[in-house]
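Lab meeting, item 3. Inverse folding demo.
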């Protein structure tokens, strides 16, 4: 390779459909922060930072780091955003299902007030880029027709390959992928809840297939843990769809599946109530 033509620092993809997304109409700092998050997210799973093992598309940062990243010079004056402004941008990005923000907790340290107790250390913000796998995979950009109508950022789940247009083929693939989950009831409930985020209360079979393909990248226990969190927190009622659920799954831990001692109201279905009792819930 000719060193004069080598570009240091690596690269990442930015899809052209970003021009049609909501962030393109926001103040420049919104796009600048989102681009910074993408560029600093882990490209591969397994990277350890501040005692935390990151998954692909995740990063740990702080408000002070973001402040410096968004600083700019104008008329010899350095302008930096306030923490309140950063919070507003992050909140908007999360509301748009583009990122998931959680506190990053790592390890334990002695509690000064209680010498015999330990407290967990806060190390910053754990941010997951929703749909990172799709947008940072070169295969996602092959075979796209020029002039094809662009969609909102994060909506490539609607795009399926040509082999997925046959209904019988799609149904067969869904069955195969769904067999990996012993708890079929909660998976079906997840799809019903995701459908409720649509105006039609329906999701296409091809979209369901794409969702299962995304879930396949994670252990079964982690997927189920993420689904339970998504259902219990009622995120669908806030309009947060499968992209937000995927972010939860990405961060979920198998121990999150523990429901011992939790109480929930009866669903009205004897079979569903029995299912939750088997999971450790007390049904009222």
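The presenter then showed the designed sequence:
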């Amino acid at each position: 390779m000719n060193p004069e033509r080598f570009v240091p620092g690596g690269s990442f993809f930015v899809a052209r459909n970003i021009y049609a997304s909501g962030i393109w109409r926001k103040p420049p700092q919104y796009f600048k922060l989102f681009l910074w998050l993408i560029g600093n997210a882990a490209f591969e799973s397994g990277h350890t930072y501040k005692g935390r093992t990151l998954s692909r598309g995740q990063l740990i940062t702080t408000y002070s780091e973001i402040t410096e990243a968004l600083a700019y010079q104008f008329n010899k004056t350095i302008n930096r955003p306030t923490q309140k402004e950063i919070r507003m941008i992050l909140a908007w990005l999360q509301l748009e299902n583009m990122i998931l923000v959680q506190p990053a907790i790592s390890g334990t340290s002695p509690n000064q007030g209680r010498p015999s107790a330990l407290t967990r250390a806060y190390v910053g913000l754990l941010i997951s880029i929703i749909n990172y796998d799709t947008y940072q995979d070169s295969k996602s950009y092959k075979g796209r027709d020029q002039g094809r109508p662009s969609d909102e950022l994060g909506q490539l789940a609607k795009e399926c390959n040509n082999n997925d247009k046959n209904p019988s083929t799609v149904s067969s693939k869904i069955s195969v992928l769904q067999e990996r989950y012993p708890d079929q009831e909660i998976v079906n409930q997840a799809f019903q809840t995701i459908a409720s985020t649509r105006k039609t209360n329906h999701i296409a079979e091809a979209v369901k297939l794409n969702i299962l393909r995304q879930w396949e990248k994670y252990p079964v226990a982690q997927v189920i843990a993420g689904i339970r969190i998504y259902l219990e927190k009622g995120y669908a009622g806030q309009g947060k769809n499968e992209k937000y659920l995927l972010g939860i799954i990405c961060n979920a831990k198998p121990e999150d599946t523990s429901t011992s001692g939790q109480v929930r109201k009866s669903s009205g279905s004897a079979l569903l109530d029995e299912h939750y009792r088997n999971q450790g819930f007390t049904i009222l």
